[in-house]
Structure formats: structure tokens, C-alpha cells
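JOB MANIFEST
job_type = single_chain_structure
chain_count = 1
residues = 327
[input]
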Amino acid sequence: MSRYSSCEGDTDCSSHTITLALDNNAWRTVLVSTLDWHRNHYFDVFISFDGGANYTFHNRIETYRPSYTDPYVSSIRTLASNLPQGQDVRVRVQATRGRIYFEGFALSHAVLPEDVQTLVAVRSEDGVVSGNYTLQGNITIGASASGSLAIPSEADVDPTAGSGPLNIGNEAGLSLGVDSNEIMARDGSSSSVLHLNREGGDVSIGAVPAGAPSNLDVSGNVDVGGSVLAGWERISAAGTTHSSVPNTCSFGGSSFSCYIGSATAICGAGKVVLGGGCSCNGQTPGGGYNQTCHGYPSGDSSFRCQSFATAASAPFTAYATCARMGN
């Protein structure tokens, strides 16, 4: 809705009105947006609770523009608040003194402070809206999933109470401040503990499983009250001693024929070896051979085992414990 009231100056403009009809009213607050042309002009607000049969004077609102030389601005004000629900309410705006450009009404389910001298917001010629808002209800942004809230402020958040473009909580007590790349938990003007999913639930940091791994940098100590899951795994690799011509081995000053074999357990991509071991049969009852194994890390991500046995094709296994580790 938008219209001029044609009456100007100090003449009687009571016939120039705009009426908002709210049958079976479900709203708590009515606001109005007006383009303020001149200073010292005003309009009166009348309310009816019986469908327009009887009106009572509610308040008088003066236009906002301070002087003739100032830019034209749109002011948004609360006309009436805490309206009764379920009744046939009428809100009438009367351009009592001077020409006024009514831009439109707005309705809210919240009960807003009603002070005719206080602007809810001011919109300048370039469309920027400024002002202080105190709401006692819910706010819905957008009528679908495409709705969004943008806060372009570049103010930096720090331990000081109220710093940053977005603040949640009591500035004198526990609060949370947010800027474009920081989250700050505070207690008054002191830093405080930031809890993530304190009541339960996992916390995911970085890329989704299908994406590239991301890093978590901690400047200080990490205290863990439970288990650390570092993407660890145990890798095994089976091997046997050779079945070809035996080697000559010596032990305790004696030489004998032996068969040698090796196996290497290799960690998965992006993981390093933390440790490893070897498993071999030794002397198998009734098997008639002796076997020994030894192992060592053969690289950053592998563990190698070597076995010596008095029989060919003697089995053994190499194991590696692997995990993701940073520098």
C-alpha cells in the first residue's frame, strides 16, 4: 500500500485517513512505514475493537524528518501493540496535520514496545534500514528455505562484552560473540569455555567423508577425557620361508642349512606406522623344524618381518599398527 494524503499545511485533514481491517484478529502489533516529507507534521491513530462502529483515540505520531534540507527517510513505528485476538479490530491513521506519504502497514505476532517518540527503524533513500529493535517473540526470515540473514559488519569479536557483529546471551554474564571467522565465549569481559555439543552428539570438523581431509590446529595442550580415534588400523601381511635351495645360517658357532623369507605390512594412504610385530610358529610339535622371526620399521608407513627356519615354506605374519599423524 502507498498513497499521499493531499491535505497540506495546518488545515483540517481529518478526512484523509487510511484504515487497516483485522477481522478475527490474530496479530499482536501493527506497525506503519511513512515517508516523512516535512518536519512538524503529524498523524493520529484511532482504534476500534467492534469492527469500526466506535473508534477511540490511541496516540499521535510526529514525522521524523528533522529539517527541510535533510534527505527524505522512511520511518517505521509501532502504531498499536498488545492487540486483543479474536476481535474485529480496525486501526485508522488520520493525516491530521500536513501531507504524509503512507508506505504501508506491517503486522507482527510479537508484542513490541509502544512509544510514539521511539522509531523502530529508519530507512534512507538508498534502502538501508537502521534502528534498534526489541522483540518479545519469534522472528521468521523468509517464507521458504531460501530465506537468509546477512550481517555485513566487519567488527572483530574479542573478550570484551558486546564486541562483534552478533552477540547471544547476557553481556554482564555468559555470552557468545561471533564475527566473520571467530566464535568467542565470554563471561562478562573475560574469555570463557566454549562448549560444543555438551549435551551429546558428534562434532565434525573439516570436509565431509567424500572430500579431502582437513586439519585441526591446536595452540596449547589437548586434554582428552575419553578415547582418541586417530583413524588407526592394524595391517597384516602373511609370508613363508623360501622353498628353493637353502641358505647357510650360523648360530652359537655352528652352521646349518636354513630357509629365509620376508613379508612387509604397509599402512593405508596418509597413515604412518606406530609399531609392529612378527608372528612365527617356532618349533611345531611333530613338525620337526625350528623358526625364528625379527622385525623393524622399513619406512614411515611399513613394518618388515624376516623369518629363518630349518624347513622350507614355513609360515609367518608381519603386523603394522597405523594411524594418521601430523607434524
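[summary]
The domain at 3-130 is CATH 2.60.120.260 (Jelly Rolls).
The chain is about 0% helix and 40% strand.
exit_status = 0
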